[in-house]
Amino acid sequence: MTTVFTKLKDRGFIESITNEEKVAEIFKKKDDIVCYTGFDPTGDSLHIGHLIPIIALKHIEKAGHAPIALLGGGTAMIGDPSGKTEMRKMISKETIREYSQKMANQIKDFLNVDDGKSKIMNNADWLEDLNYIDFLREIGSKFSVNRMLSAEAYKIRLERGLSFIEFNYQILQAYDYLMLNRKENCIMQMGGNDQWGNILAGVDLVRRIKQKEVNAFTYPLLTTASGKKMGKTEDGAVWLDPDKFSPYKFFQYFRNVEDEDVFKLLKIFTFLPLDEIEDMKKWKNSKKINNAKEKLAYEATKFVHGEEEAKKALKSSKAVFEGNKKKAKSIPEFEVEKDEVKDSIRLRDLMANKGITDSKSEAKRLIKQGGVYVNDDRVEHFAHSVNLNDFDDDGILMLRIGKKKYYKLILK
After folding, report:
1. Does residue 106 sit in the same domain as residue 131?
2. Which of 84, 97, 287, 327 is flagged as catalytic?
């Protein structure tokens, strides 16, 4: 039986899980599961890192369950120490409330919170007016300081200094799960894999207070094939707000992913059927890989910015590419023997052999700096190779260095 859990697993959304067999069974037997993911409003817009949990919540919504997007209007006033070497800068209450509203407005574009089962909630509703003594007696007494200090997030910070206010973060996040279980009968929490310790604390707290089993799983922290964290560009983060990061730039971000990443990202960032994605894998070692990248960019942009903006971005992208091809008519041309590229050749070697760069080391440096493009795709690794498949039907490969230097390689 295919459930939304098996769908999420098959599409690569699940990293760590409390009890896979039990979670699979819950999704098979229950038709109306309440589950949640938290979003701390520490900025004025969601970014691509938030897109993974949002798409997961959308899959859950489509399956007829009841997802909750929980805004951390309360926990953001503390600051999560996870992954941070120093204490986060404190944000004013007014700014956090402003950020919370902006994020809520963005999430409403993705989830059906008006007519469906999906909800947007804010933990400030129960955290801001807590009675400190009562909270310590009921909740604080269930936490072991020794166990908390063994958590990776705290161990790293102990060497640099961990403030008492940050030490409370895990307790408050765990309390969120308890409150959602009480208020909404929530039995599943999802979050980034860097939150695993905090998430397990919530699972344990619900068990201790309510003698009830709840579960959780985490999403992977995506990195590119070359080991970089996804979501960063030369201009900064990939924001979902079109005023901070245009739909065209958003499209281009996905259009320029590495070849090795495209099929993994198609599973996560689009709703295309898995068999359709599998069918595209036959393009893996050919120039048609760019068709898969275009599909990824179009579908991701359509989900975030709407179909009209996705069509405009696709049209603009094609126009830029065609424009570059026209420019190639007036720039240096280099003939390439088919035998040179039949079995593939390192791009840096080809560039040096043709005199495009003075040496292989210079070509390597340019590639490592991210300034070399093959057929409008940024070359991500200095060991990148090209072969016959990189030349179009006219036997042309377009090479660009930086923004303005174009070279045309022609098969002889």
Report:
1. yes
2. 84
Catalytic residue among 233, 235, 282, 338: 233
Catalytic residue of the set 7, 9, 47, 360 = 47
Task: Please tell me what DSSP assigns to residue 228.
Answer: P
Query: pTM here?
Result: 0.78
For residue 168, pLDDT beyond 80: yes
In a domain, 90, yes or no: yes
Is 232 catalytic? The answer is yes
Q: CATH number of the domain at 388, please.
A: 3.10.290.10
Separation between Cα atoms, residue 294 and residue 321, nearest integer Å: 12
Radius of gyration for the alpha carbons in the chain, expressed in angstroms and rounded: 25
Question: 59 an active-site residue?
Answer: no
Helix or strand run (H / E) with residue 346:
strand 345-346
The closest alpha carbon to 346, from 324, 367, 328, belongs to 367
Helices (H), 328-407: 338-341, 347-353, 360-368
What is the distance between the terminal CA atoms of the chain, rounded to a whole angstrom?
A: 55
259 burial via Cβ count (<10 Å: 0-12, 13-18, 19+): middle
Active-site residue (options: 6, 42, 95, 101):
42
Q: What is the largest CA-CA distance in the chain?
A: 81
* Annotation says 194 is catalytic: yes
Q: Are 359 and 352 in contact (CB under 8 A)?
A: yes
Rounded to the nearest angstrom, the gap between the alpha carbon of residue 174 and the centroid of all alpha carbons in its chain is: 24
Task: Please report whether residue 258 resides in a domain.
Answer: yes
The pLDDT of residue 163 = 73
Is 75 noted as a catalytic residue in this protein?
A: no
Mean pLDDT: which of 29-43, 175-189, 253-267, 305-319 is highest?
175-189
